[in-house]
Design goal:
Distance between the termini of chain B: 16 Å
Oligomer: heterodimer
Strand content of chain A: over 45%
CATH topology of chain A: Nuclear Transport Factor 2, Chain: A
Shape of chain A: globular
Number of strands of chain B: 20
Largest interface: A-B, 35 and 43 residues
Strand content of chain B: 25-35%
Largest sheet of chain A: 6 strands, mixed
Helix content of chain B: 10-25%
Largest sheet of chain B: 8 strands, antiparallel
Radius of gyration of chain A: 17 Å
Number of strands of chain A: 7
CATH architecture of chain A: Roll
Helix content of chain A: 25-40%
Chain lengths: 165, 415
């Protein structure tokens, strides 16, 4: 009988660890600690933002694609040093974590997010909603994304997209 | 009566002797916006509707817009492409309410009026009524109630539609030089690699101007300078159709010299940063030349883009006087291998709403729109390159193509 609670413990513990990863990830972005954003990924990790339309039609184009730490850092350097945009902040909410599978050290998960954007004059809007489709690995006791695919519900981006989701 | 004869114009007179000055009113005036729908988008212009490869088989359709007007583009059984206003002749409902699909006929779900793939009305539900009561009288003729058709021309895989009988063939509309520019990029059958769109909080014309304004490129978009990847003094120039309506801005890779740019006061920190991963800047030469950037506008609202290996068409759709939507269709060639497709995905980081060298275009139009609305009569000033609408070789520091756009707009609007 001892095995059932133990299995449940493992599952609860994994969920809590992934919840913490997701919370840490969105707070890092929402708190504008973007220089830490690449650290959520493995050295050869992959991040992309695409749309439900492209995803369902099997089309490869993404709005953003980073493969490997260098590209993640380039995104943030460009955001800080090159790109021009009106100051704005994000507030993410993450929900409905689903652990699809966990094998050979890779945990496949899916969760939903909503993202409210606030401009410096106070205008607020639902900027994006969608899914995170993730492959998570345990890297020296720390969970990291080997892959995080952001699938936006809508094909429409209001004005521009500079801060990662 | 004059205003009625000229199409119910607002009381608007172009306030300057040429198009090197533009009044802010053109971006904010509801009346002008309404007149534009008739005079520009439903006038003697070719509206880009879709790509031929998006509707490859008989019965394939796609919905789109020409200006504000919803359009169905459909390939019929004879392999001809037809375009009709997406509005049932009965009560005006959208006939196709899905973005794309395949049909044998076009049936309006509201009252089941049915049209063939050329827009002819073929059946009306309960034509004879029920039990001898109701239904149509004999005076109703199907032939008088088809969908409104556009003239269609397929040009190098691009599907264009016009509401006017007078619009000249696409090749004449563009002129030889800009036909060559299309041929330079669209060298092989195309394949769609993806879509996304961008909402601009500005009048549609501000985005058209932005594309034709080669002056802003290295000033607003400082990604290249910041990372020291390209100098603004690379070779290139501007081509403008004889009509002034269409343009091409291109950049050619030549030997880089720092002399001139070093003296310019541009807002960038040159060579302060470098790309850790320059994969996205790699240019696989595939078009037979060293042109790195090629932005071609086709009046009124199409952009054909080649930036390195990132190919796209951008279709601008006005959404009221203060808003517009840009539909990006990212392209490859049908014979691209997997490596090339992945390369195009990587270079696509440069463009689009999140593009390193293009995202700012989403913001600047809105900044003009916000600042413009309080003063209808004030004028923008576009003196770069003089007042003429003429091409420029070797320099893109000119606003000639923007002046050309306004010439086209005034000709359409008869203003």
């Amino acid at each position: 009988m001892a095995s059932i609670p133990s299995q449940l413990d493992d599952e609860v513990s994994l969920r809590l660890r992934i919840d913490a990863l997701n919370a840490n990830y969105v707070h890092t972005i929402d708190d504008d600690r973007l220089e830490n954003w690449p650290n959520f990924f493995t050295a050869d990790g992959e991040y992309s933002i695409s749309t439900r339309e492209n995803h369902e039609m099997g089309l490869p184009i993404c709005l953003v694609q980073c493969k490997g730490t260098g590209m993640f850092r380039d995104r943030i350097t460009a955001l800080r040093q090159a790109n021009i945009y009106e100051p704005h902040t994000y507030c993410h909410s993450v929900s409905a974590l689903h652990i699809a599978s966990s094998s050979e050290g890779v945990i496949a998960t899916k969760s939903n997010f909503t993202l409210v954007r606030t401009m410096s004059e106070g205008e607020m809007m639902l900027f994006a909603a969608g899914r995170y489709v993730d492959k998570i690995v345990d890297y020296n006791g720390e969970l990291k994304f080997a892959e995080r695919r952001v699938i936006l519900e809508s094909r429409r981006i209001d004005t521009l997209l500079v801060i990662p989701i | 009566m004059d205003t009625i004869d000229r199409g119910n114009y607002p009381d608007f007179v172009w306030p300057y002797e040429d198009t090197s000055r533009v009044p802010f009113q053109v971006y904010t005036d509801e009346e002008l916006y309404r007149v534009e729908q008739k005079k520009v988008f439903q006038g003697n212009v070719w509206n880009f509707l879709c790509l031929e490869c998006e509707i490859p088989g008989p019965g394939d359709y796609k919905t789109t817009y020409a200006g504000d007007t919803p359009i169905i583009v459909v390939r019929d059984e004879a392999d001809d492409i037809n375009a009709m206003v997406n509005r049932c002749a009965h009560k005006g409902s959208l006939v196709c309410y899905k973005p794309r699909g395949n049909v044998k006929e076009l049936a309006c779900v509201y009252h089941n009026w049915v049209y063939d793939l050329r827009g002819n009305l073929t059946a009306v539900a309960f034509r004879r009524g029920v039990g001898g009561k109701g239904g149509l009288t004999d005076e109703f003729k199907n032939s008088e109630h088809g969908l409104q058709r556009l003239r269609v021309e397929v040009f190098r895989g691009l599907v264009f539609g016009t509401f006017s009988e007078k619009t000249e063939p696409v090749a004449d509309y563009l002129g030889d030089e800009l036909v060559s520019a299309v041929d330079r990029v669209l060298i092989k059958p195309l394949k769609v690699l993806g879509y996304y769109s961008q909402i601009f909080k500005n009048n549609w014309k501000l985005y058209v101007e932005n594309n034709k304004d080669s002056y802003h490129a290295s000033l607003l978009h400082v990604f290249h300078n910041t990372f020291g990847v390209v100098r603004p003094n690379m070779g290139g120039g501007i081509k403008i159709s004889d009509s002034g309506w269409h343009h091409l801005s291109y950049t050619e890779r030549t030997d880089i010299s720092d002399d001139e740019i070093g003296k310019e006061n541009v807002r960038s920190k040159q060579d302060a940063y470098s790309l850790e991963d320059p994969t996205l800047m790699e240019h696989k030469l595939e078009l037979g030349d060293n042109v790195t950037n090629n932005i071609q506008t086709i009046f009124p609202t199409l952009v054909i883009q080649q930036i390195l290996n990132c190919l796209a068409v951008r279709q601008l759709i006005p959404k009221g006087v203060n808003e517009s939507e840009l539909i990006w269709t990212i392209l490859g060639f049908e014979d691209d291998d997997e490596e090339m497709i992945q390369h195009r995905v990587a270079t696509n980081n440069l463009v689009g709403p999140a593009g390193f060298i293009s995202m700012e275009d989403g913001a600047v139009g809105a900044w003009v729109q916000r600042a413009a609305k309080s003063d209808r009569e004030a004028l923008t000033v576009m003196p770069m390159g003089g007042r003429a609408i003429e091409p420029s070789q070797g320099s893109r520091v000119t606003e000639a193509a923007v002046r050309g756009f306004w010439k086209g707009w005034r000709e359409c609007m008869e203003i």
